[in-house]
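Residues determine shape. Take a concrete instance:
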Amino acid sequence: MGQSKFGGNPDLPESLSYPKSENGYDIPFLCQLNLGEFDNEITSEGILYFFVNLMIQPSMVLFFFQKIQNL
């Protein structure tokens, strides 16, 4: 739980609700990136979640959650 992955189901913490479109449908999950797995200058911990809808009303939702031990 909490590793980087594409597709499937996100490892969302209980405090985050799954994002919905304006019509009330779930926005499809694209990927989650565990920043602790990458050599980067942004932060050494936390997860970025990407949700993308490319249908009738394209939209994207991005969540950042820093405390991955709360997943």
Q: What stands out?
A: The chain has one domain: 5-12+25-70. The chain has no helices and four strands. The mean pLDDT is 86.
